[in-house]
Amino acid sequence: MLIKDEDVDMSNTTSAKSKKLYDCTHCDRSFRWLRNLKRHSLTHNQSKPFTCDQCEFRSNRKDALHNHVSNKHVDADKPYKCEHCALSFAQRYTLARHMQTHAEDKPYKCADCDFSCKFESYLKRHLSTHVVGKAPRSDLKPFRCDICEYCSYDRKGLRRHVMIHTGEKPYTCADCEYKTTEKSKLVRHRKTHAREFRCAVCEYKTRFKAQLTRHASALH
C-alpha cells in the first residue's frame, strides 16, 4: 500500500522508526522528507503573500495561487477565437460580428446622407439623428467602440474601455509583474509593497512581495 508522507501521521509506523522524521512544531504531524514538512508548515502560517492580480484571492502557497488562476481565470468560456487578433468570444455570432471590424467595407448606408457603417445597429442609431426633436445617442456619448455597443462621454473613457478588448495593460508595477488598465489600480497595488513580507520557512523578510517570491523559489 502506498503511503503519502504529507497525508498521514507517521509517528507510529514501523518504517518511521528506522528513519529520521521531521516533526511539525505546531501539531503532531511528522514527515519523512523535509520538503513535505516545509510545505505543511505553510498551513499554520497566517500570512498570505501570494495574491491574485485579478480578484481578492490570497494564499500562503505559490502552487495554490497557480491552481486558482488556472481554474478561475482561464478563457475556457470563450472558445471562439478571432484569427486576426488575440480576442476570443463566448458565442459564435459575437465572433462573426467582431470579424466585421477587420473588414474594409461598410455595407450599411444611410439613405438620407453619406453615412455608412459596419453594423446594422450603428445605422439604426445614426438614423435617430434625422428624427426632428429627438436627441441622438451619439450627441450624448459621441465616442463609440468599434467592437461593441459601448459609448463614452469622453475619449479617455473610450480608450480605457477598448483595453478590455485588446488585453492591453499599460500601467506596470516596477517591483513585480502586476499590470492593470487603470492608474488608480496601480496606485492601490503599490501600497501592498509598503508592507513587510515574511518568509514562511525561514527568518527572511522584505518590503517587496516580488523579492519574497524570488527568495522562496530560490531557497525553498
Q: What keyword list fits this structure?
A:
single chain; two-stranded antiparallel sheet; Double Stranded RNA Binding Domain; zinc; transcription regulation; 3 domains; alpha+beta; 220 residues; C2H2-type domain-containing protein; 34% helix; metal-binding
Uncertain runs: 1-8, 10-17, 134-138
Q: Helix and strand string, N-terminal first?
A: HEEHEEHEEHEEHHEEHEEHEEH
CATH homologous superfamily placement of the largest domain: Classic Zinc Finger
N-end to C-end Cα span: 30 Å
Helix/strand/pairing class, anyone?
A: alpha+beta
Rg estimate, integer Å = 27 Å
Counted beta strands: 14
Instruction: Tell me the number of structural domains.
Output: 3
Query: What portion of residues is helical?
Result: 25-40%
